[in-house]
Amino acid sequence: MEIIRFAELRPEPWRNGGGVTRELASHPKAASAQDGAWDWRVSIADVGSAGDFSTFPGMERVITVIDGELLLLTVDGEEHPLEKYRPFRFSGEADSSSALPTGDIRDLNVIARAGEFKGYTSIIELSKKRAHPVFEGQMAVLLEGKASVSPGAEPADAADGDTATAPTADEPVELARYDTVVGSDTRSPEILGRGFLAVISIDRVEHVHS
Length: 210
Fold this sequence. Notes:
By secondary structure, the protein is mainly β. The protein has strands spanning about 1-5, 10-15, 20-25, 40-45, 50, 60-65, 70-75, 80-85, 90, 95-100, 105-115, 115-125, 130-135, 140-150, 175, 180, 190-205.
């Protein structure tokens, strides 16, 4: 079970000085959050001043405000008021800029190479009674509240092994704010608690050959 601890991520300042980015994951793994040598990337950015957004030619973006009230995003001359927890999709090639009418914000960014991958962000409310599984190809970010994660049930064909050697393997692990759980189809992690979760999916685009 893989957990990406937000507190351990290194902030990288933007080129324009208007904020910092912390990369949660990218594929293939890049040396820098800004070098663009990836097909998709998931990151959290702190936006502290109005200004232009970086362009990402050939990419598609999904941006979600996760802290703060409002981001005014202008894309190719059209203004879009982005409220908290409302994902917004736009072209990475677009001429885009931001204004912060209510102060600093933090946003979740999913960027994927158009035609090769498709990124999705969904905001869900957690339950203390029903666990939320995180499957292969997904990541789940705790946005607010209190939650823990534990491995799912053993597959049926693995149940014959000696499980007594790892008595603490199934103990729930507490999550801090903005910690990310990486999904798996083998013992899919399950999250229980109260609060809100961002579930990110990165799907490969299937090409039909004639």
